[in-house]
Amino acid sequence: MQIIRATDYYRMSRMAANIISAQVIIKPDCVLGLATGSTPIGTYEQLIRWYDKGDLDFSGVTSINLDEYKGLSPDNDQSYRYFMNEHLFKHINIKPENTYVPNGLEMDSEKACASYNEIIARCGGIDLQLLGLGHNGHIGFNEPGEAFEKETHCVDLAQSTIDANARFFASMDLVPRQAYTMGIKTIMQARKIVVVVSGESKAQIVREAFFGPCTPQVPASVLQLHNNVTLVGDEAALSLIP
Ligand code: F6R
Fold first, then answer.
1. Which domain holds residue 102?
2. Residues 164, 169: Cα–Cα separation, whole Å
3. Catalytic residue of the set 18, 136, 165, 235
């Protein structure tokens, strides 16, 4: 594993964006695995700045996102499809038809997950997967205890996640109870993985995930077994690593 230390969130985002840019320049028709959440926002902003300057061309790129809430439509502002459109896709020249997010409106979970696995296979797999890290070590929606051998699957959200999301919805009934996520196996099949971490609140889990035992109780710890992982963090997030 390679570790890149940045002094702050802005520089961390720039470093991660540099790695993604290099991938796009070296292989203009590459497949990028993308993540939502607060951490990658700065990375996407930097990619947009370089695109605006004319330094990057996404016209040949395909993107495949990690996860989506089951039951949410793309125009729901809490959906991950909406997030990706707002934070990246609508600002660059990636072809909308080459951007994939699990279909939240497909209520048949098996169908939704099988078709997502097919998409990943049809695209030839993921060249570079960008990941954030949950405070409990989750990656995608793979929570502690999830089997390492899973591909895209449907997960029941923890009650704490449902409660935390409730504030974004008009009523409790509208809060998603399930989500589709790439599994650990799918993530591990990416040829290169870049993990972005920022802030003191991530310091303990960064230490456990990358320097502790490899266990399903800390899903991200499986990344220690991948042969091409780059951890990009700011000082605060990397403050507890040996
Ligand atoms: C996002 C995702 C999640 C986040 C993780 C960290 O698609 O699947 O695993 O990467 O929850 O989120 P932030 O970056 O908000 O701390």
1. 2-234
2. 10
3. 136
